[in-house]
UniProtKB/TrEMBL annotation:
Record has Lipid metabolism as a keyword: no
InterPro entries given in the database record: Bact_CCA-adding_enz_type3_sf, NT_sf, PolA_pol_head_dom, PolyA_RNA-bd
Organism encoding this protein: Helicobacter canis NCTC 12740
SUPFAM superfamilies, A to Z: Nucleotidyltransferase (SSF81301), Poly A polymerase C-terminal region-like (SSF81891)
Family: Belongs to the tRNA nucleotidyltransferase/poly(A) polymerase family.
Name used for this protein in its record: Poly A polymerase head domain-containing protein
Residue ranges occupied by any Poly A polymerase head domain in the UniProt entry: 26-132
Cofactor entry: Mg(2+)
A biological process term (GO) from this entry: tRNA processing
GO molecular function ontology, one term from the record: nucleotidyltransferase activity
Length: 482
């Protein structure tokens, strides 16, 4: 673990340079520093500075598109690549303040001292600030190699030394560590900054963030931090459903989910209240089904290609629904309980619908015929049925879902009819046939006839050929008149 592993992208360096040019401090901060030190590629880059939001806007407004939604909390977003959706958030150094509703600071006060800002952050591993030009400031004379104070230097001007000098006792290779974050990363320990009880009491969302970091990073939660986490768990009721949903979805896709669930059932009981009793029991006697499911989740999160149909992106609706359904299946949830829980967490209707489909087909028999597979595809859709195959394969093993997978492949490769869209006859054709017989068909009658023809094709009573279907349609229309 070394600061040399922190490679700041050019677009982030340009922002830092702009701030330096205007005589402001600038550091990359938080998760991007932590992930870089762990050898992971950061998903986002955040910057902290002593420039106020108004000053940030004045510096960058002419060159970048800005997002000012977080201005009241000291944050301005800078769009560096709109096409790629890249936004760098710049936040002004802030002081500790009181919080309301266990979530938001009641007031925001700025400071020019980075150390004060680091003291207010949630966890030590997230309270690391990095500036690649700081090592040279140990030699504030123009003759020092690579000194930012040399004539013509582009990165940091002469005012930088005075601004940064106060941090030198806490700087190692450009990383400012005021709260012991480097040591905790080295031992993979998650620890609150300062008083853990105060941190969780200020913002209860930090409870779920702690569990997410444990699940994603494989860290162990330090004892006093863990004790405070349990002591403040009931404050999760004050957190919005959307925030809880976001954290839970990320945890479900994490590589170390087991350690975040087992032993923390009392916390999860505050999130999934319909399942409070079985969740609390996780802390003493987790069921074999729970342990097996968590092991399955860890396996597919580490290697998504283990899914039969290779759902590579764990961030798609299908992949998330698969993981949510495994969770509710492990809890032995009824369809009604799962639906209620998903709605309470504010999941969108498509996610809820997919989970309902998966859970309602969890006991699908292994030996499906091609005909029954086509009927299922008619009822729930081919893609949803493929996801059901993934679901039962993860529950019972790939061998259990192999017949279904083979039939799905046959339907696709042979382009077999399984729904109205793949039927060789449509509503306009039926209308034309009826008109040729001097008959007017209503929309409801057309729909009924199409469904009848589809069922006959699926059951191989008639081939999916337009001429044959037209003849059969005439027979059905004539029969309806008798």
């Amino acid at each position: 673990m070394h600061a040399s592993s922190i490679t700041i992208p050019q677009f982030v360096q340009e922002i830092i340079t702009h701030l330096h040019t205007h005589h402001f401090q600038a550091f990359v901060i938080g998760g991007c520093v932590r992930d870089s030190l762990l050898g992971e590629k950061p998903k986002d880059w955040d910057i902290t500075t002593d420039a106020t939001p108004k000053q940030i806007q004045a510096i960058f407004a002419k060159s970048y598109k800005l997002i000012t939604l977080g201005e009241r909390y000291g944050t301005i977003g800078i769009i560096t690549n709109a096409a790629a959706g890249i936004c760098v958030e710049i936040t002004t150094f802030r002081l500790e303040s009181s919080y309301t509703n266990s979530r938001h600071p009641s007031d925001v006060a700025y400071t020019t001292d980075l150390l004060q800002d680091l003291k207010r952050r949630d966890f030590t591993c997230n309270a690391l600030a990095y500036n690649p030009y700081l090592p040279a400031l140990h030699h504030p004379d123009s003759s020092a190699p690579n000194s930012p104070l040399q004539d013509g230097a582009q990165k940091v001007d002469s005012s930088a030394y005075a601004l940064y000098h106060r941090y030198m006792p806490y700087i190692c290779d450009g990383v400012c560590d005021y709260v012991g974050g480097l040591a905790d990363i080295a031992t993979r320990t998650l620890r609150c900054v300062g008083d853990a009880n105060a941190r969780f009491s200020e913002d209860a969302l930090r409870i779920l963030r702690a569990l997410r970091f444990q699940a994603q990073l494989g860290f162990s939660i330090e004892s006093s931090t863990q004790a405070a986490l349990f002591a403040n768990a009931k404050k999760l009721s004050q957190i919005s459903a959307q925030r809880k949903q976001e954290e839970w979805s990320k945890i479900l896709c994490a590589k170390h989910i087991t350690s975040t669930i087992i032993g923390f059932g009392a916390v999860w009981a505050e999130v999934f209240r319909e399942f409070a009793k079985p969740l609390v029991a996780l802390d003493s006697s987790p069921s074999a089904q729970i342990l097996t499911t968590l092991a399955t989740l860890e396996s597919i999160n580490k290697n998504p290609s283990l899914c039969m149909d290779s759902i590579e992106s764990i961030h798609t609706d299908s992949a998330l629904s698969l993981r949510l359904s495994l969770w509710f299946y492990a809890l032995d949830s009824s369809l009604e309980q799962a639906t209620s829980s998903l709605q309470a967490l504010g999941y969108k209707s498509r996610i809820i619908s997919l989970c309902q489909t998966l859970l309602s087909h969890a006991n699908l028999p292994s030996h499906q015929s091609l005909e029954s597979t086509r009927i299922l595809a008619r009822d729930i859709g081919l893609d949803s049925l493929a996801l059901v195959g993934e679901f039962i394969a993860l529950i019972y093993g790939k061998h259990y879902a192999t017949p279904l997978a083979k039939h799905l492949a046959t339907i696709r490769t042979q382009k077999l009819c399984y729904n109205l869209a793949t039927l060789a006859l449509n509503g306009d054709d039926l209308t034309a046939i009826a008109n040729s017989m001097d008959i007017v068909l209503q929309g409801r009658e057309i729909g009924r006839l199409l469904r009848t023809l589809l069922d006959e094709v699926i059951c191989s009573r008639v081939p999916n050929a337009k001429d044959t279907l037209c003849a059969r349609a005439k027979e059905l229309i004539q029969a309806s008149l008798n």
